[in-house]
Amino acid sequence: MLSGILQQNPSDSFARYGLAMAYLGEGKTDEALAEFRSTIERNADYVPAYQMAAQTLAKHNRSEEAKTMLTDGLAAAKRTGNGHATSEMQALLDELEIGY
Question: Over the stretch 25-35, which tens digit does the pLDDT of each residue have?
Answer without folding.
Answer: 999 999 999 99
